Amino acid sequence: MRIAIGSDHGGYELKEHIKSYLSSKDIEFTDYGTHSTASVDYPDYAKKVGEAVTKDRFDFGIVICGTGIGISIAANKVKGVRAALVYDENTARLAKAHNHANIIALGGRTTPFDKAISILESFMNEQEEERHMNRINKIKEIEGK
Ligand code: RB5
Hints:
Layout lengths: L1 E6 L4 H13 L3 E4 L10 H14 L4 E6 L3 H7 L7 E3 L3 H9 L5 E5 L5 H13 L7 H11 L2
Parallel strand pairs: 1-2, 1-3, 3-5, 4-5
Helix pairs in contact: 2-3, 4-5
C-alpha cells in the first residue's frame, strides 16, 4: 500500500502522528509537506497530494488542515480527486464504500489523534462497492472526463 500525505500548519502535528503510525505498520507513504508549524496556505498542499494521487500510483491520499474543510474543498478541485472530509469511523467507511473516495481529509484541530488513527483504519479496511459505480461515473461526467 502507498499513501500520499500532506497538510498545512494546522494539520502538521496530526500528519506527523499519522506518519509514525504508518511507519509502525510498515505502510509506505510520501510526505508532500508542510514540514513545520510555520503558517502556509492549505491549497498548495491539497494540490500536491491531489496531483500525486491522480497521476502517480498511490492507493489513496490523506490531507489535513485545521478543520479539514479548506483542504478538502481545494483537493476536490483537482480533476479525478474524490476527497471526503471524515470526522468518524462510519463516515470514513462510507466514503470508501459508497463514494470511492481517493483522498480523506482530517481536521488536525478538531479530531483527537487516536480517533484519527481509528478513522484511517476504518477507511483502509473498507472496500469500494461496485454497485455505486454508476454514481461515480456521473461524478466523472460532471468533471468532463
Ligand atoms: C489555517 O489557520 C486554517 O484556516 C486551516 O488550517 C483550515 O482549518 C482551513 O480550512
